[in-house]
Input
Amino acid sequence: MRELIHSSPAALGSWAFGDCAYWPDQQHESSVQTLKTALRAGVRHLDTAWAYGNGRAEQLIGQQLHRLRGEIPRENILLATKIHTFDPHALERRVLESMRRLQSPYLDIVYLHWPHTTGDILPLYQELFRLKESGIIGHIGASNVPVESLKKISSEVPISICQFSFSLLWRAEEQQLVPWCRSRGIITAGYSPLGQGLLGGTDPETLRQKDPRRDLVFFDPEQRHRTAEVLAAVRLVARQSGRSMAEVALQWIAGTGMIDSIIFGARTPVQCTGVLDGLAHRTSACSSSSILPRSPTRSPPPGITSSTISGDPLSPGSSYGTITPCAYRQQPDRPNLKSSDHDFSAMPTRSPEGMRSSL
Output
């Protein structure tokens, strides 16, 4: 698995392929062509979920991989899915359903999809381990699981890969989870690298009134200005370096060295190509300039404290990396929704997207 991820560090997420309410009007043929574009560009890591579109995303991927089997053998694909259940007895049935939809006799990675970490999730992982021992699962993954829960689980069940939201708008996991994974040789996979489109240039003010993204904590009235600060900083670096906002955001992630596999979403071949070009393209650095004035010291900082471009702004250790995450509210088990009764001072351990994949 590590070899495939090293050779294909970009992974295609398929949440939008499910044609769910979150991504309305997604056309089947557009999803098919997007998948083919990624595969023919060399992407070999595909990320999906049992719940995406009630199985439509898995079914689409399975159909296309079957049709392309002469061009791309199954053993050259890293196929990952996520299972959402709270019942260990239902896990095997759902894994088998995913295998049927994906038309594969085995799954390379199976994650638990947003498990309730307030309860005992070890029995679920123990069942995944049993399925791994049976040969139908290659590796066990953890998706959006706090590090304290992972410490308990990993003492009894081998975890190969951890998946979580990671972008310039959401960096909470670099505090504890990423170092913990690194110390144990666990692969890290970051989704929503473009903050569901916001870091790719989507103007938050132009989102339709019923766009579900408006319910993200990024748009909480008390957080909007902090989100705007991050977007303004990325926009400035993009203009000064002659890159797109997406390039800046993607190359920043690649430059941190914290993420082994960047899971991106795309609804069209053009979007897919744009992301892959953004990850591949690297230009000379722009001249030094101050992005934002230093903010009063807080712990954790509420937004961008300071950022001065010196050398390559996207390189590890550059001062551009001092952009700190916005402070977000966390609502237990539904962290994507707004709330009014949570402390802003504590950085949450779960991402703001809720059951969201990458875009």
Remarks:
- The two ends are 23 Å apart (CA to CA).
- Strands lie at 10-13, 45-47, 78-83, 107-113, 137-143, 161-165, 187-191, 261-265.
